[in-house]
Design goal:
The structure holds two protein chains of two kinds. Chain A is of the alpha+beta class. Chain A is built from 39 helices and 14 strands. Chain A folds into five domains: 487 residues, Up-down Bundle (Sodium/glucose cotransporter); 79 residues, no CATH class; 117 residues, 2-Layer Sandwich (Beta-Lactamase), CATH 3.30.450.20; 72 residues, Helix Hairpins, CATH 1.10.287; 147 residues, Heat Shock Protein 90 (2-Layer Sandwich). Chain B has one domain. The chains are: A alpha+beta, B mainly alpha.
């Protein structure tokens, strides 16, 4: 193939890749397709680097099925996704950790751990980058037949770097979604898989006549060639499996694509079988290509066994297919490695050495720094290849890389499963392991004699084993041993313990509860702007507020702690966990003047709820019990709230939410002083009171006045670690009203007794007066005296009726006269009442106007209705100023007659108005009113099946009072003697 | 979790016994595709277990 054709092929492929990424970025493809889980799962195929295309051929030629270790090791890691990858993914997403160095720095609470892991990753990845470039260079050399790779391969590498810069460094946050990049990597997986399957098919059906023919060849002529392979010893095979198992999630590009990209949990769980299937399909063509080349008699010594695929046919398209498979595998690996490593170097080398405090235009600065680092990583890989890699075969480079990266495996396993591991142990183990790896494998890489570690007594047989095997065993053993010993021998800091619990698979985070110095989101912005500049601080705080759906004015300590955590996680995605923690510790500190920190129970509960699907067995049963008890408290029909020792509200149950009208979510986590009134004052009072109860406290709520009883209990366990107070809030309003009713009834009963006595005592003299008046009337002819006698009789009748009414009122409101209801004209009743009022000869300067029409009439007792009017008009007269007017009016309103008595007096005090119909309530000065008039009116009106209401002042007026009566209209067709039930 | 334990057991057993795969290369009478068949069987088993886990999870969510 000509050099120009090769150049066009390479550039054309990279252009298609760029076009794919661009189409996704610009939204030319439907989002449903772009964000399909299959795209992300396919992107995991970046694991299959150029080693999968060429290196495995080299290994299959040497050790037969030994090449499968590369695929089976990774398949094992994905099979264990629920136990291994999902917990790491959870941590990476929760704390915005974008790389292995971020994760280690977060867990071991040390920036130096992050720096160390970055350096180890950089050293381990250089041989792998060199391997990718070597395969590209050799492929170009084999296809073009010239040493032109000297400029073509670095040219392609530069294009790959440009692609990574354009599509991988568009966002400042390392965890930002990069759909374009993911789609391009997924396309690369499809291309390399398709190319490998095509090459396998060519071998199986083009060179052999199908599987049967292949089997015959293997059993026959091909058997000799296979006998030359040297199968790996079981121990070596297992060691290789472990190395590739570790590589599947520790290599920077695999960590980046699996955990830094927003891959869903379910997608990762599905990858547990999709990735092994992908790897199976990638592995299947390898022996077919090898056997095909062997049958054709391709001389492996000329091309190198890694490149046997080029010899399957002399057709140009076989070469092109192999070249594209290699380019797809190498470019994907180089792109993701450069992205991952640039982020690690930025966060753990550059930003640690030069913290970006008050850096103007921080986002832009970070973006350009990252782009420069991407170019530097690929440039560094190229230099390593030219200086070192070019002198070694693919296996040497791959082993050097994978053994180096495996040194992080003990740390990763401890991070997940050993909370007792500490920083000192991890650093010691890593340094020892890396030192052995560097001493054992790098001298031979760099052209010197390897230093092989001393072999312990009894294991002398290992002396004949390959270097990579010996170095792997000794370095990992020394790493693990020193890690465990130093961790056990040294102290673990509190911060590390907390981080260990956050990272442990079976632990739930138990954060502590401390108030922040900042009082709300706005203050957090102000504090943060000193570190990040105003614009960046505002954007970061707004982003965190939006993620938490919080208001910037929310001042709940719980909410502010969550905001701080979210900001720290977001900054971690921007600048790594070390710098992020420095910034929040320095600029968003906790208050140190309050009580000691206690556990954030509410947060723990929230986390437990999230964690629930992963609980099983006893843990699930215990959690079920916890939920049962919590539900009991939440659904308790009595209000319940709980406060921590620092006064922070930890629980607010449904009944209390219903009573107060305040949903629990809006107040849980708030300090008691910041609760809405009257709860802050009420709950503050019970918390401050030495007594543990407050009975029937009057409280004005939205539904009116309520009477609440509060009971508190101190919540102190035997270890005194969960202090605080739990408060029960009972609504005793109805009980209070019932008690008031009871008192009222008792008073009425005593009035009844009094009235009975009064009736008895007054009845007799009144009868006497009435008789004397009657005698006087008959004994005289003086018309004046006769009129006086009439009036005395009328008044004594009235007294008798009043006494009768009083007795009737005391007997439950039923009138006792026994008079039948008849049609009554309110105009006449009012006239009569006015006449009697005038006789009293007081209030003569008040003008009374009777505007009642003669018809329609109401059904009732004329005498008792007259009593009503006398009381109402008397009250109106007493309330009116001299010259004031009192107007009586009536008009039909549906089935009833609406009668109004309106005065222009001083009105009724609002506090008294609601109690006017209760006995002994009066607005008059002491001694002038009995407080029985209006209760009597009420009783009579109720007896008539009517209603009474008071407007003071009347609508549209500034003063005065209007009494409104509704009395049933008389219907000609109705039985006039029907007495309405007063209790109706 | 029981599903996870089965997977863990499978992976560990596979790790221990996988060296047996090596003997198939070039052995007369040994089908060349035998390792891939075993591997494919394991994938099918994992797929079934994953489906079972997903259904269990969904049922549990529905119950709650």
């Amino acid at each position: 193939m000509s050099l120009v054709g090769l150049l066009a092929l390479g550039i054309g492929y990279l252009l298609i890749l760029a076009l794919c990424a661009l189409a996704v970025e610009r939204g030319w493809l439907p989002t449903r397709l772009v964000r399909h889980p299959a795209i992300h799962t396919l992107a995991l195929g970046v694991y299959a680097s150029a080693w999968a295309i060429h290196g495995t051929l080299e290994q299959a030629d040497r050790s037969g099925y030994g090449y499968l270790a590369y695929y089976l090791g990774a398949a094992g890691a994905f099979l264990l996704a629920p136990m291994l990858l999902v917990p790491i993914q959870r941590m990476a997403h929760t704390y915005q950790l974008a790389s292995l160095a971020d994760l280690f720095a977060f867990r071991f609470r040390s920036r130096w751990v992050g720096t160390l892991v970055t350096l180890v990753s950089l050293l381990a990845v250089l041989p792998l980058l060199a391997l990718q470039m070597q395969t590209l260079g050799n492929a170009i050399r084999l296809l073009s037949g010239s040493a032109s790779q000297a400029w073509l391969a670095p040219g392609l590498s530069a294009l790959i770097a440009l692609f990574a810069i354009l599509f991988g460094a568009r966002h400042t946050h390392l965890n930002a979604r990069q759909d374009g990049l993911l789609a391009a990597i997924a396309l690369e997986s499809v291309v390399k898989l398709g190319a490998m399957l095509a090459l396998g098919a060519v071998a199986l059906f083009g060179i052999f006549d199908g599987p049967g023919d292949l089997q015959s060849w293997l059993d026959g002529p091909g058997h000799l060639a296979q006998a030359e392979t040297h199968p790996l010893a079981p121990a070596q095979w297992r060691t290789l499996l472990m190395l590739f198992f570790a590589a599947a999630f520790l290599m920077p590009h695999m960590f980046h694509i699996t955990f830094a990209e927003p891959l869903g949990r379910r997608t990762l769980l599905r990858a547990a079988w999709v990735m092994p299937l992908f790897l199976l399909l990638m592995a299947l063509p390898v022996p077919l290509i090898l056997w095909g080349a062997q049958r054709l008699g391709v001389d492996a010594s000329l091309t190198g066994s890694a490149y046997l695929a080029f010899g399957l046919s002399s057709s140009w398209w076989i070469g092109a297919l192999t070249f594209i498979a290699g380019l797809a595998a190498a470019s994907g690996t180089m792109i993701i490695i450069s992205l991952a490593l640039s982020g690690m170097i930025l966060n753990h080398l550059v930003l640690v050495a030069h913290p970006p405090i008050a850096q103007p235009d921080l986002y832009r600065w970070l973006r350009w720094l990252r782009r420069a680092l991407i170019a530097a990583v690929i440039g560094g890989g190229w230099l390593f290849y030219r200086l070192v890699g070019v002198h070694h075969d693919l296996s040497s480079l791959a082993m050097a890389s994978f053994v180096g990266m495996a040194q992080c495996l003990p740390g990763m396993l401890a991070l997940l499963y050993w909370p007792g591991a500490n920083r000192k142990g991890m650093v010691t183990g890593l340094v020892v392991g890396v030192a052995i790896w560097l001493a054992g494998l790098w001298p031979s890489l760099l052209g010197g004699a390897p230093w092989l570690p001393p072999i312990p007594p009894g294991l002398e047989a290992l002396a004949d084993e390959p270097d990579w095997y010996l170095v792997t065993l000794v370095s990992l053993a020394a790493n693990v041993l020193s890690f465990i010993l130093v961790s056990l021998a040294t102290r673990t800091s509190a911060g590390e313990r907390a981080a260990a619990e956050a990272c442990s698979v079976d632990a739930v985070v138990r954060p502590m509860r401390l108030p922040l110095v900042a009082a709300n989101g706005l203050e957090i912005k102000r504090h943060l702007s000193r570190a990040l500049g105003q614009e960046v601080a505002e954007r970061e705080v707004e982003r965190a507020l939006a993620a938490l759906q919080m208001s910037p004015l929310d001042g709940r300590p719980y909410a502010l702690r969550r905001l701080r955590d979210r900001i720290q996680a977001n900054l971690s995605g921007l600048m790594g966990p070390s710098v992020a923690q420095d910034i929040v510790d320095r600029f968003l500190p906790y208050r140190q003047d309050g009580p000691g920190a206690t556990e954030d129970i509410h947060f723990v509960e929230n986390r437990l709820e999230d964690y629930r699907p992963r609980l099983n067995g006893l843990a699930r049963e215990i959690d079920g019990l916890r939920r049962y008890h919590r539900r009991t408290l939440t659904r308790l029909p009595v209000g319940l709230c709980a406060f921590g020792e620092d006064g922070e509200l930890l629980m607010w149950n449904d009944a209390l939410a219903g009573l107060s009208g305040i949903p629990g979510e809006s107040v849980i986590g708030a300090h008691r002083d910041t609760l809405p009134p009257p709860w802050n004052e009420l709950l503050g009072r019970i918390l401050a009171e030495p007594a543990s109860q407050l009975y029937k406290q009057p409280v004005t709520l939205s539904g009116g006045q309520r009477f609440l009883s509060l009971h508190k209990a101190e919540r102190q366990d035997e270890r005194a670690t969960h202090g605080g107070t739990v408060i029960l809030v009972e609504d005793h309003s109805e009980m209070k009203w019932l008690e008031d009713e009871l008192v009222h009834a008792a008073r009425l009963a005593s009035i009844g007794q009094l009235a009975a006595g009064v009736a008895h005592e007054i009845g007799n003299p009144i009868t006497g007066i009435s008789s004397l008046a009657q005698n006087l009337r008959y004994d005289t002819d003086d018309p004046e005296l006769r009129e006086t006698a009439d009036q005395i009789q009328q008044l004594t009748d009235r007294v008798s009726r009043i006494v009768g009414s009083l007795v009737g009122f005391a007997h439950g409101g039923r009138h006792v006269t026994g008079a039948a209801f008849q049609p009554v004209s309110m105009a006449e009743v009012t006239d009569e009442a006015l006449h009697l009022i005038h006789l009293a000869r007081s209030g003569e300067d008040v003008v009374f106007e009777n505007r009642c029409p003669a018809t329609p009439r109401v059904t009732g007792d004329a005498q008792r209705l007259q009593q009503v009017m006398i009381n109402l008009l008397g009250n109106a007269r007493d309330a009116s100023a001299p010259g004031g007017r009192v107007i009586v009016a009536a008009e039909p309103e549906g089935e009833r007659l609406r009668v109004t008595v309106t005065d222009e007096g001083h009105g009724i005090d609002e506090r008294v108005r609601d109690h006017l119909f209760e006995p002994f309530t009066t607005t008059k000065p002491a001694g002038e009113g009995t407080g029985l008039g209006l209760p009597l009116v009420y009783s009579i009106v109720a007896e008539h099946g009517g209603q009474i209401d008071i407007e003071s002042p009347p609508a549209g007026q500034t003063h005065g009072t209007r009494i409104l009566l509704w009395l049933p209209l008389h219907r000609e067709d109705a039985e006039s003697t029907d007495e309405p039930d007063p209790d109706r | 979790m029981y599903v996870y334990r089965i997977v863990l057991f499978l992976v560990f057993a596979g790790y221990l016994f996988s060296p047996l795969l090596m003997s198939g290369w070039g052995s007369p009478g040994a089908a060349w595709y035998r390792p891939f068949l075993i591997w494919g069987g394991l994938i099918a088993l994992t797929m079934w277990l994953e489906r079972k886990r997903r259904l269990d999870e969904r049922r549990r969510e529905e119950l709650e």
